[in-house]
Specification:
Structural class of chain B: alpha/beta
CATH superfamily of chain B: P-loop containing nucleotide triphosphate hydrolases
Radius of gyration of chain B: 17 Å
Helix content of chain A: 55-70%
Low-confidence stretches of chain B: none
Largest sheet of chain A: 7 strands, mixed
Shape of chain B: globular
Number of domains of chain A: 5
Order of helices and strands of chain B: EEEHEEHEHHHEHEEE
Oligomer: heterodimer
CATH architecture of chain B: 3-Layer(aba) Sandwich
Strand content of chain B: 25-35%
Strand order of the largest sheet of chain B: 6-7-8-3-9-10
Mean pLDDT of chain A: 83
Number of strands of chain A: 22
Helix content of chain B: 25-40%
Radius of gyration of chain A: 73 Å
Low-confidence stretches of chain A: none
Mean pLDDT of chain B: 87
Number of domains of chain B: 1
Shape of chain A: elongated
Number of helices of chain A: 25
Largest sheet of chain B: 6 strands, mixed
Distance between the termini of chain B: 31 Å
Number of strands of chain B: 10
Chain lengths: 1220, 234
């Protein structure tokens, strides 16, 4: 492909988006549906396989009439292919909750071994597994709103069912719910049958193995090594492998049966003998205990009497004490009053003394103040006189000083003259002279000294010269000395004269001074005397003052002290008063308290008295009770002993009854629901063939039409490319790419969507009926490849083919428009009667339809498919939904089922029946025997689950309660005594018709039964016999185990009352009402809505895609025509009608044929999905036909509505364009 | 005779992405009742657009158009459909017959939606096709198909017959026959006919010739003596 071509094809895709997407969608739809449904069955199988494997579902289950011992387990483990043998217990019990009477199968919990393997390992959904006795894990279906149980609930078991004591079998009869589990043993909601209660197991529970009292295991689970080497267990290989193991188990059973006597029976007999001995000793013990009890009782009586006497005495003492107390209180009041009076008198006295002291203090203060005032005034007087004297003295002194002042001044002048003269002499004159003297002296001294030395030298001088010189020199020295001596003398003289001058001046001053002193001596002396007198007066005043101050301070201190003493007295007095009041109150309070105490004591006394009386009575009562109890216990003990004796007798009997031990071999196929799951899965696969093939067919048709048109539209382009010289291959590759791209995307989308939705939806739908684990998606590679290849073939090959066809033409031809198919007269025109009455649009339509046959068929098939699918969906709901109504409103018209205890005698049954009949709520009632059986035809076909034998006792009542009628006509079937009536489903499966015989297995015994008629029935299968025929088959009269009754007004309230009424009666173990079954069945049907929805959506998509595609092509091809008629003046509505007429007619054809196809499809689906337990109604309601038709029409209308806009958009100018 | 078709200042613009193309650029003309008008111009002159607007297949952006005194420029979609239905007959270049219908049925296709219509067989007879009444278009020659197309247009008794290059796909002689048929119809029934063509040679047969160029009317001439078709040659 060249780049230009590639670009071209991509442009092409984006230009024709709608077409591309519609091819993609239809491919996705077809491929998705096909692969999705095809994936469902393998996925379901794989999920089941995984579930079984992960939870170690046992391969073989062994039961025995006598149970198993450890030795049996050991031996079984030695067999070939046996990997693990798990012994376990189970027992069936009836839950004792008023009204329900559900039968529960209790399994022992199997602990995981060292490899983590636990056979039939339960999945714990809520809570946990039981860990100790008294705990139970219930099955998950009973959890919450559906089952009504939640964690922590307590369930109680009926202590006795069918004459058996549950406490012989189980440790506890009350269980606390600790968990909710799911075991792989049960994949459906079928729980199997049992011999107790209503005969049907409602649920299972898991308890600890310690709970079981049995000394031998109830069953052995065996795990083989098959799964080690094979992954599939749902196939025939597995079944034949398991069957091949059967012989070795049978021979083991034989071997073990031979040893049963030795290993068990003797032992058991011994045990029984031991039990008898124990019983004897127990009896002795019991008698002794009774005697002891009697003695205890007597002692108690004695003790009681003593206690009563004692108690009476205690009461009397208390009374006396109370009276004494009262007296004491009275005395206390009197004493208190006296004391208070005395205290008051003392206080009054103290008050008077204090008042006196206060008065004295006041007087003393007044006197003290007077004295102080006197002393003060004297002192003031003295001070005034002193001051006067002082003034006089001062005046005198100043006068004296004034008078002596001139003399004093002259004196001072003289003094200063003397001082300066002295100063000059000493400081100037004397030193200057002295200095000269001193210099002269020092000259003398040095000269003297030199003279001395010279003299010495003279003496020592040898020569005269020398002596002469010396002498000269000495003479010289003498001259010097003499000169200086003269200086000294002169100077000394001068000094002495200066000194005498000074002394003269001194003498003058001294004279003047002594004269002055002489004159002033007298007045000075007078002044000094006055002064002395004043000073002494002053001194006296000061000392007086000091004394006064001292006196005053002293007096004040004394007064203050007295005041303080008074204050203290006052305080003491008020304290005393306070204290007195307090003491008074305290005394009162104490007395009051005592009074209260006495009152309390009195009350206590009264209460005590009552109590005493009461206890006295109670004691009496207790004693009486104890006596009564003693009597009862005595009786009970005796009864127990006799019961024990009976038990031992029964055990003896049982032991004697123990026949040859027999083992039973069961496989997984015997597990309830195991087979039907496999069947169902196979059916899903079968359904998975038809629907998807149908879809693929439509896919092919749509693709062919669309792509043919696509190539046609590209004629010119093909011609041009060819003319340009492109090779055929490269031109083809364009179209192949276009279609391959569309289908590839479609495939991916389809596979992804289909795989992720459909298996899950189907699995969930089946989840209504099965308890499985999460879905494990398995991709069915082969189917995916088939689907994808088909899709590719439908698209690419068609593209290739049409393109090749076009390429065979010459380019010039290609570039011209394809010669339109010649219009032909159609068959209809040969009938002018009709043709002439048709208008033009009808004629055009008729001719168009005839012209494009492929398109006609495609549309019809697509629409028919849509209608058929919708019809099938609604039909399924009709069929399945109807059966509850038919079964419980038309066939079984009874409302009440009361289950009887098996062992009751016929007499009791009649009695119970009468009492129920006579109830105000019941119309009719009858006895019936109903047991679960297995049936097998001559040819080996068999039904093992959900087959019941019913034997109604009273034929007249039967006609009202169970309507046995012909399947089609509904005519009632008369009972005959030479055969049984069987129901439709059983007749179908076993291929039986009236006159045939079949084998019926009831309680492991086989009987041959003849069919007298086949009756209509939907849920479960029934073999109905009248008592006569039963007797001829079984050889004994039927033992009835149920009462059926119809109610006159079946409200919930009445049901509840009736249920309680029935259960009150001895001999009725359980009661149930049909209304419950209807409800649960309708719930199941409701969940089918999901499946119907899937069908509806698929159908709608199918219709929409097909119609859209075809209409689109139709419009594209006729665009010119449409434009022309618009130009002619057709309104939009008329134009659409012109185009749609064809669509509408084709749709109508499709709807009509779809309804026929739908009926067939519905029947096919019903037959395929039908399971053995139910037969679905074959009819489809008229409403469903209507709905299928209307819904298809709605889808078509929706497409047309969308197309309206497309037509409206067509431009009229188109019609003018030349043909390209 | 009164003015039957009046165009007053009519505009029509197309938007081609960014560019606005004015196909009809403010044209005004009138055609009188019973006239045989030819609109002539080279391709792209806007004559087809004029015809589309006149035929109610398209609407103008501006201006007034009245046909027979009724304004059509203000009609909505449904009004236009009604206008086409009762007032207009259209003859296409490529006949545009419905291939699935016979000649008679094609005519009836138009007549059945008009209350006042001609009999289909009569119409076909009048265009000389009585022999071919029950033939499908694919069994007819081009000229015959165009006659069916004309018959279909006439069956509605339109007030205005619009012909878009009716001879464009036909050979010379057949074309002449068709033109003759149209002219005769105009003359005998007094029907107003508007014919568009690029062929100048046809103009002498018209009562009125409107020449268009680049979306404008360049000439609007009344021909006082129109020639008979047989006298025209091209």
């Amino acid at each position: 492909m060249t780049a230009a071509l590639r670009k071209n094809v991509l442009k092409d895709i984006s230009k024709t988006k709608a077409r591309f997407i519609s091819i993609m969608l239809i491919v996705a739809l077809g491929v998705g549906f096909f692969t999705g449904i095809k994936a469902a069955a393998p996925s379901m199988n794989a999920s089941a396989e995984q579930y079984y494997k992960e939870n170690y579902l046992m391969d073989i289950r062994l039961l025995s009439t006598v149970g198993f011992s450890d030795k049996d387990v050991e031996e079984a483990l030695k067999l070939e292919h046996v990997k693990k043998v798990s012994p376990s217990y189970y027992t069936d019990a009836v839950i004792n909750s008023s009204g329900s009477g559900s039968v529960i199968r209790l399994y022992s919990n199997i602990d995981e071994d060292e490899n983590g393997i636990a056979l039939n390992k339960p999945i714990v959904h809520e809570g946990r597994l039981p860990e100790k006795t008294g705990e139970i894990a219930l099955e998950i279906t009973t959890f919450g709103t559906g089952g009504g149980y939640s964690l922590g609930d307590v369930i109680t078991l009926e202590p006795q069912i069918s004459g058996e004591h549950m406490d012989d079998k189980l440790e506890s009869l009350e269980y606390t719910v600790v968990g909710f589990v799911q075991t792989p043993l049960y994949v459906s909601f079928e729980r199997g049958t049992t011999s107790v209660g209503s005969g049907k197991i409602h649920m299972y529970g898991i308890v600890c193995s310690e709970e079981f009292k049995a000394d031998r295991y109830s069953q052995l689970y065996v795990l083989t090594d098959y799964t080690d080497t094979h992954s599939q267990t749902l196939d025939d290989d597995y079944n034949s492998f398991i069957d091949s193991l059967k012989p070795q188990f049978e021979s083991l059973a034989e071997k073990r049966a031979g040893l049963f006597d030795v290993e068990y029976l003797n032992d058991a007999k011994q045990k029984l003998a031991d039990a008898e001995n124990t019983l004897d000793s127990e009896r002795d013990k019991a008698e002794k205990e009774l005697a002891d009890a009697k003695e205890t009782l007597d002692n108690a009586e004695k003790e009681y009497n003593e206690k009563i006497t004692d108690g009476q005495k205690q009461l009397d003492d208390a009374k006396e004490k109370i009276q004494t107390g009262k007296k004491q209180i009275e005395q206390g009041y009197i004493d208190l009053d006296n004391g208070i009076k005395q205290g008051q008198a003392k206080l009054d006295n103290a008050q008077i003394q204090l008042d006196n002291a206060k008065q004295a203090l006041k007087d003393g203060k007044a006197e003290f103040n007077t004295q102080i005032a006197d002393a003060q005034s004297q002192l003031d007087l003295a001070e005034r006189e002193y001051n006067k004297g002082l003034e006089t003295y001062n005046n005198g002194l100043s006068q004296f000083n004034r008078e002596t002042a001139p003399a004093k001044a002259a004196l001072a002048l003289m003094k200063s003259r003397y001082d300066s003269a002295l100063n000059v002499f000493q400081n100037i004159t004397k030193p200057s002279h002295q200095r000269v003297i001193n210099d002269a002296q020092s000259n003398i001294d040095s000269a003297s000294k030199e003279k001395a030395e010279l003299e010495q030298k003279l003496e020592q001088a040898q020569t005269e010269a020398e002596k002469a010189s010396y002498r000269l020199q000495i003479a010289l020295c003498d001259t010097v000395i003499e000169g200086n001596q003269r200086i000294i003398d002169r100077e000394q003289e001068r000094l002495d004269s200066a000194e005498s001058d000074v002394n003269d001046i001194k003498k003058e001053y001294d004279d003047a001074l002594s004269q002055y002193e002489e004159q002033t001596a007298e007045p000075l002396k007078q002044l000094e005397e006055a002064k002395a007198q004043l000073d002494s007066a002053k001194e006296q005043i000061d000392s007086g003052k000091a004394e006064l101050a001292e006196q005053k301070a002293l007096g004040e201190a004394q007064l203050a002290q007295a005041q303080e003493e008074i204050n203290a007295g006052t305080q003491a007095l008020s304290d005393g008063r306070q204290e007195l009041i307090q003491k008074k109150n305290e005394g009162r309070q104490k007395l009051k308290d005592s009074e209260k105490q006495i009152k309390q004591a009195e009350e206590d006394y009264l209460n005590g008295k009552d109590e005493f009386e009461k206890q006295k009575l109670e004691g009496r009562q207790k004693l009486d009770d104890a006596k009564k109890e003693y009597e009862e216990k005595k009786e009970e003990a005796l009864l127990k002993l006799s019961d024990a004796q009976a038990d031992i007798d029964r055990a003896k009997e049982k032991l004697a009854d123990l026949s040859e031990p027999e083992w039973y071999f069961f496989t997984r196929r015997d597990n309830p629901g195991y087979l039907s799951l496999i069947d169902d899965t196979t059916r899903v696969d079968a359904v998975g063939v038809v629907f998807p093939l149908f879809f693929l067919l439509v896919v092919a048709l749509v693709c062919i039409t669309t792509l043919t048109r696509h190539v046609d539209e590209k004629r010119t382009e093909i011609g041009t490319l060819k003319a340009l010289g492109y090779s055929n291959a490269s031109i083809k590759s364009q179209f192949v790419f276009y279609s391959a791209a569309a289908s590839l995307v479609g495939c991916i989308l389809g596979v992804a969507l289909g795989m992720f939705t459909l298996p899950r939806v189907i699995y969930n739908a089946y989840g209504i009926m099965y308890m499985l684990i999460d879905l494990k998606l398995v991709v069915p590679i082969a189917n995916v490849i088939v689907a994808v290849l088909t899709a590719f073939a439908c698209t690419t090959i068609v593209a290739l083919f049409t393109c090749s066809k076009a390429l065979r033409e010459k380019p010039s031809e290609l570039m011209r428009p394809k010669a339109p198919k010649t219009a032909k007269r159609i068959l209809l025109e040969k009938i002018p009667f009709i043709w002439n009455r048709m208008n033009f649009t009808s004629k055009v339509t008729a001719r168009n339809i005839a012209r494009y046959k492929a398109r006609f068929f495609m549309t019809v098939i697509g629409v028919a498919g849509c209608t058929a699918l919708i019809l099938t969906g609604f039909g399924l709901k009709n069929s399945i939904g109807a059966i509850a109504e038919k079964q419980f409103d038309e066939i079984f018209t009874y409302d009440l089922i009361a289950v009887l205890e098996n062992e009751d005698t016929a007499h009791r049954h009649k009695e119970l029946l009468e009492s129920i009949k006579n109830s105000e709520y019941v119309d009719t009632a009858m006895l019936e025997r109903q047991t679960a059986v297995e049936v097998k035809a001559e040819n080996g076909d068999e039904l093992t689950d959900d087959v019941y034998l019913i034997v109604p006792e009273d034929e007249n009542a039967r006609k009202e309660l169970i309507h046995i009628r012909e399947p089609k006509s509904g005519a009632p079937i008369e009972f005959k005594s030479d055969g049984a009536v069987i129901t439709q489903k059983m007749a179908d499966v076993l291929k039986l018709s009236p006159g045939d015989t079949f084998t019926l297995t009831d309680n492991n015994r086989q009987y041959r039964v003849k069919v007298s008629a086949v009756a209509e029935n939907y849920i479960y299968s029934y073999v109905v016999m009248n008592p006569e025929y039963y007797e001829s088959v079984y050889g004994k009269a039927p033992l009835y185990n149920m009462i059926l009754g119809s109610m006159n007004d079946e409200t919930d309230e009445n049901e509840r009352k009736l249920g309680a009424l029935c259960l009150d009666k001895d001999g009725i173990v359980a009661v149930s009402f049909i209304s419950g079954s209807i409800k649960s069945f309708n719930d199941t049907v409701k969940s089918l809505d999901m499946v119907i929805l899937v069908l509806l959506v698929c159908a709608g998509l199918l219709a929409v895609v097909v119609l859209y595609n075809l209409t689109n092509i139709n419009i594209a091809e006729r665009v010119r025509e449409i434009a022309t008629i618009k130009v002619l003046g057709f309104y939009n509505g008329e134009t659409c009608a012109f185009v749609y007429r064809e669509n509408i007619i084709l749709t109508l054809c499709g709807i009509v044929s779809g309804l026929f196809v739908g009926v067939v499809l519905h029947r096919f689906v019903i037959l395929t999905i039908e399971i053995n337990k139910t037969m679905f109604a074959r009819d489809i309601a008229p409403l469903s036909f209507l709905l299928a038709a209307v819904l298809t029409a709605v889808f078509a209308a929706a497409v047309n509505f969308v197309m309206y806009f497309k037509i409206k958009k067509i431009d009229m100018v188109e019609s003018l364009k030349s043909i390209e | 005779m009164s003015e039957f078709v009046v165009f007053e200042n009519v505009y029509k613009r197309y938007k081609m992405g960014e560019v606005v193309i004015t196909a009809v650029d403010g044209i005004s003309f009138e055609i009188k009742q019973g006239e045989f008008a030819v609109v002539v111009g080279s391709s792209g002159a806007g004559k087809t657009t004029v015809l589309n607007i006149l035929g109610g297949m398209d609407s103008c952006d501006q201006g007034n158009i009245t046909v027979g005194g009724k304004s059509i420029s203000t009609l909505d979609e449904r009004g236009l459909a009604t206008y086409r239905r009762f007032d207009i007959g259209f003859v296409f270049q490529f006949y545009n017959l419905v291939p699935n219908l016979t000649a008679k049925e094609n005519v009836e296709l138009a007549s059945q939606i008009c209350k006042d219509h001609k009999d289909a067989v009569e119409c076909l007879k009048s265009v000389g096709l009585e022999e071919r009444i029950n033939n499908f278009p694919s069994q007819l020659s081009g000229g015959e198909q165009q006659r069916v197309s004309i018959a279909r247009a006439l069956a509605k008794k339109p007030k205005l017959l619009l012909c878009d290059e009716p001879t464009g796909a036909l050979d010379y002689n057949t074309g002449k026959q068709i033109l003759k048929l149209l002219q005769d119809t105009c003359r005998s029934e007094g029907m107003t006919v508007v014919l568009i063509t690029h062929n100048q040679a046809i103009t002498p047969m018209a009562d009125r010739v409107i020449t268009m160029k680049s979306g404008k009317v360049v000439r609007n001439v009344v021909n006082p003596s129109p020639l008979d078709v047989s006298l025209i040659e091209w």
